[in-house]
Amino acid sequence: MGGQPLFLQPRLEARLRSLAESGELLHTLTDALGSPLHVVVPEQIAANLERFRSVYRRHHLSGQVFFAHKANRSSALLRRLAATDAGVDVASLGELQHALGAGFTPDRITATGPKNREFLWLAARTSVTVGVDSRDELEQLAALVRKHALPRARVLLRLSGFETAGVRVLSRRSRFGSPVRELVPLLEAVERHRDVLDAVGVAYHLDTTSLDEKATALEGCLRVLEECRERGLRPSAVDIGGGFGVGYLADREQWERYTTELTAAVLGTRPPLTWGGHGYGLRSEAGTLRGALGLYPAHRPVAGARYLDELLAHPAASFDGRPLADLLLEHLYDLHTEPGRALLDQCGLTLARVLEVRTQEDRDELLVRLEAKADDIALEAHGVLMDPVVVPRDLSHADTGPVAVHLSGSLCLESDLITRRTVFLPRRPEPGDLMAFANTAGYCMDFHATRAQHQPAARKVAAWQDGGSWRWCLDDQYWPTTSVGGAQ
Amino acid sequence: MRYDSITEAIGNTPLVRIDPAVHGLAHIDLYAKLELLNPFGSVKDRAAWNMAGPHLADAAERGRQVVELSSGNTAKALAVLAGMHGLTFRSVTNRMRIPEIKDLLLLLGAEIEELPGQSECLDPTATDDPLTLFHRTLSEPGAAFLHTDQYFNPRNTEAHLTGTGPEIVKDLDGRAPDWFIACVGTAGSSTGVARVLREHDPAVRVVGLVADKSDFIPGIRTIDEAREVGLFDPGTYDTIEAVSADDAIEGMLTLNRRCGIMAGPTGGAAYFGALRRLRAADSELTERQSAVFIVCDRVESYLSYVRRRRPDLFGRPRRRNSPADLSDTEVRAAPAVGVADAQAWIATGLPLVVDLRSPSAYAALHIDGSVNIVDELFEELVHGGLPFSRNRPVLLACPVGEKSARYAALLTRMGHPDVRSLTGGIIAWRDAGAPLVRDRAA
Lengths: 488, 442
Hints:
The complex is a heterodimer. By secondary structure, chain A is an alpha/beta fold. Chain A contains 12 helices and 23 strands. In chain A, strands 1, 16, 17, 18, 19, 20, 21, 22 and 23 form a 9-stranded mixed beta sheet that branches. Chain A is globular, with a radius of gyration of 24 Å. Helices cover 40% and strands 15% of the residues of chain B. β7 of chain A pairs parallel with β5 of chain B, so a sheet runs across the interface.
């Protein structure tokens, strides 16, 4: 098999572990509903929300946790969340309709992202808070409210391009938000439209894992809010977006060993660890490693609510090193967050049936073909490397010991690989077995799914525990009444 | 010794024997090459001068900026060298995690740019990592930069090939040591020195030390990071071993406290790694051997780094009148007053209202007539005794009434007869609709 197996075992908390170990149920589900199949776990999202809430409580902060709906289309997850006190962040007309239909009242919804007129109209009509991306959008919304005699719209001003003194903290350029250096005309527009727009606060969302960059932006927001107050506006909130991250892998050492071996493979000092010697962004130039590892940092000890906790404890350089949480609190601002992936941590898995296990000529790795397209299991599209859990159909098969495999999809297309990584499995899979890809609920279920080649996109079911056993229904059939002794 | 320029003081550092009573090796003489005694404080002075020196006059003529990817000592040396020649210096980094170094660089007039962190919503097809973009800006037409390129520049290694290595051989009476132990950062010093030593004696054993992958030791790379270094060639080293941050600090403490060598964590890592390797060899030896390790830089810049990992080393005597001394019972029993009663009390004109929030929060909105003493300052004041007359009632206010309760309890314990905490703090005050004001700008 070419050296030690390099496992990347998924981190499974109790609920998801129990589900992944319910082999009979999972086979029954895929026999009935087909492969691939997504299973979501609505109770988990409520548990994750509580972790965020407890960070708010620890810092005495008020404000809303808005679930970034775009990370998963599931109705079950959204409806379960509607039964809590969380909010939702919608990024399209369809998501807004879905949220309203799931039971979210407008005071619990913010509308963000690129918007068309219909989306803006429905948001303003229902008095949903609108995260305004630019001065043009602000003008457009003001005109819309006037023309259609809509109620005064609540707006959050999304900002970008924050600047620092001393050390320059660079950030990737963003297409979203108004640059802070163009603040004055933006605030003048807000003042001009005060009769139809109510600026309730400012927002940012940075696509980075760096705490420093986010702290810089949050400090920048505090300064902008002060300028708003100076102008007689009455802002009350900062929305710091999402990007709190998920720790996908159970074992730090596995991740470290794997990434070290991958660099060795790219340099050619060990056999390849990927299909076709793919380097995940790394390359070898004259024996030196170049490029950047284009992988999600899959083992993250500080992710989700803990990441928020660290950000809030971060000292603000331009406010005498006071922690950001203290500053928010004593300036009397609400803190809004928009976690997507982090709220969906452990909220589901994706099942795919093994169709074929083929020995390759002159290669040690087995070729395992799954009844799923790569876009149904979009872990790879997000740079997440994580082993599937094999759910055998027939428990009597002999234990073969670890094997190395390549996982391919069901499209008639060379590049339809579930992952380009050589995956190590604890035993040889057999046709008919299932592979359970854990923790796919955040962005990896439906965000990328296509119906290419007339192949179906995966169906989705919701599952919950009742006494000692798992019960389920179609995702669309789930309501918060379902799991507490209701229909089934 | 008289010099015309400080740059002449670079190099020719002492080789100091470590007392066998400290290291406990029976058959090995262990020597430290004290690179911390270079004028700008580290081994990187040699490489910086050797890389930049020949180009500085030309760069000054053309108004070029010196640029390097460095998070520490190379940046420090280049900042000084650039400044001496009337040039500006910019350090670009994603690894600068030592606040003292950052401040020192700013003090020296360097510009610091921190590269953005990894994308959270990753696009695996975006191959333009921040470093690629950095290199592109360097080579844009019309760009005026002197890029010293320490990770790839052969003149980095050369500084040690002509300086550090021969100095060691000379100080050992023309012989190479049996062992050479060095941490791998840019790999310049270890590569250059190892080559010189092997030319003298091919049997010299070279130990390269890298940082444990989950750890961060300033100046040392992990094995994956070392592979990104152009000067790094695994063939240079007989073995490559990992050292943890805790080990590095332990080694550093021994050098600081027992040897009088003011080494930083990198030097500590080298000492620890040397000893770990040599102890194993020592027991099997009969004849005498010698070993050399490099002490890269000084301890002073790493105090916050050490404090975060080893707070026990900074135990300070407890101070009087500290809010941390109070029991929960005392805090719960602290005299307090609700918003409505507080408003009535304030209307009598009696209490001094002290707002414990930060100045910017106070400036934004506060209770009319209140005084702002931020909690950190208040804590300092109280250490010295009661800051108010006992005859003057005091109302303490903080965001939610937690800190104010603590200080109300403390002042009560210190003998103030009428100090009260505003229950629920400024937030409860606002929620009750009580007035908050902001003073107009003067």
